[in-house]
User: Fold this.
Amino acid sequence: MKQDLPEDKIKIVVTGTRGIPNIMGGVETHCEELFPRIVAKGYNVTVIRRKSYVRDNFRKFSGVDLVDIDAPKSKSFEAIIHTWRAVWKAKKLHARIIHIHACGPAILTPLARLLGLKVVFTHHGQDYEREKWGWAAKLMLRFGEAMGALFANEVIVISQVILRLLEKKYRIHKKMHLIYNGVTPAEDVSHPLYFEELGIEEGKYILGMCRFAPEKNLHQLIEAFSKIENHGCKLVIAGDSDFEDDYSIRLKRMAYERGVVLTGFIKGKRLQALLNHCRCYVLPSSHEGLPIALLEAMSYGSKIIVSDIPANKEVGLPANHYFHCGDIPELVAKLQENVDLPYQKQVYEMKKYNWDHIAGQVAEVYDSLVKKA
Assistant:
């Protein structure tokens, strides 16, 4: 790869994420891991953050420049308004490439092209399938997917499922790149004081870890866990909601009533300790792209119980790790089997989820654009 190109040809602006670091979300984790590695390969990267989510005064993170831009904290309009402003900011910063993440923000791809920017679009999943959206929002998300797929210079997809979807819809095989999500190597971490604070013991809890959104089906996990003979094991759920809504309020009430341990949004040593010592990780969702949380649990050798949706099945776990999506009795049986058996770790093949390798693949996409220019 050429790393001595003039800076004005390799300046990249990133939008479509709420921001980095330490901001909840799969796209946010993806960007936090990826772009410092891209900087290390000789590129100049600026991430445009949504100011309402920022809780720090950083102007730089691991070599990545950070620019904060206001946007209304609105479930329906936040992403598109922020991306509109981010595209114009990218032009003002003399970026050569703008990297747009997710279907909603991709609706601004034609504008970026009209301004002379090269566009890379990463499709993280069919957001229009998420239950939280009404019909109008789903229509706009489908339109965003189409704008990104048809007008971006290069399209990155994070799974075979999405690759096949876009090939069938838009016939854009020549500019698509399959580049998986990644995961950082596991660390052997214990955190006795935090476990004491939560009231849990190592190896005696089941872990759920994701955003509090209807399609994650955490309410089904809570219901299923309440029906097993738990032998002193607890259910711990790490995460929170982007926007406090009726679903998240009901979910938290349900959790408190049934003795579920809620940690809120956590990262770092606390999260690593939870991953390191859980009996199993459970993801009962009905919609995913390629869940980083699942990959993280696998990297720690956790036993896995996940719904049999295509994105989860693409990971290639043994058949007995899956249950039929929405089948609560089957999930109850899987959980009961787990707590009945001795606590033990598993080993999974994780080579293709290496962030350093993934960064090299993304950098090759940028490099090809620069050469064409």
In short: Residues 1-8 have pLDDT under 50 and may be disordered.
